[in-house]
Amino acid sequence: RAKAEAARAAMGGSASLLPREALGEYQGCLPRRSRHRASLVLASSSAYKRFSELLPKEERENACSARVPKSQILTLPELRANPFQHRICRVFSTSDDGDDSMSFEDFLDMLSAFSDSATPDIKSHYAFRIFDFDDDGTLDRKDLEKLVNCLTGQGEESRLSNAEMEQLIRNILEESDIDKDGTINLSEFQHVVSRSPDF
Predict the structure, then answer these.
(1) Among candidate residues 114, 149, 168, the one where a domain is terminated
(2) 195 — phi, psi (to 5°)?
(3) Quick one: how far is CA 175 from the chain centroid?
(4) Which range of residues forms the domain containing residue 136?
(5) Domain EF-hand: where (predicted)?
């Protein structure tokens, strides 16, 4: 119940209950370990309502088995101005086609990770994956440069000089790279985040 309320608060919208038969159908197609979480979130299912509204009208009846294209996911107000919007879609999408479309399960995972009730470990795990632009399991200099560029903007007036970028990356690594291998792994990232209560 708390997770459902947090997901609703995180993504906005009013509560609208998923019809019982649709809930049963959806739960039936989930692995057993996911059914409990789905029940919690779907109980007040503004998530279901928001997901189905991203689909064309003729596909809304079968929202549990549909995939929403990335272009539609990016219309969500919470993602529209997010500098990591494309990475968020990439990280949460389970599409075999690599098109970053989302199933309802993907959408729930995204809502859960960004909800106020998500644990710091979950939040930092997904943040790390989002910042790992080359998906190699570490944040290296190239990942950090892309991260800084996303945060500062891509325009000429906001772009850091090469010297400023190099100094900033050096500072980040000095603060975060505990084993001094020139990259930041997940545990190092989580250690730094644990000292930042505002994360």
Answers:
(1) 114
(2) -90, 5
(3) 25
(4) 120-195
(5) 119-154, 164-199
The amino acid at residue 116 is D
Q: Using 50, 70 and 90 to split pLDDT, how confident is the model at 29?
A: low
Torsion-angle region of residue 184: left (phi > 0), alpha (psi -120 to 50) or beta? beta
Look at residue 3 and tell me whether its pLDDT is greater than 80: no
Indicate the pTM of the whole model: 0.76
DSSP 21-46: HHHHHHHHTS-HHHHHHHHHHHTT-H
pLDDT in tens, 72-99: 999 999 999 999 999 999 999 999 999 9
How far is Cα 172 from Cα 165, in angstroms, rounded to an integer? 11
SS3 of 98, please? Answer: coil
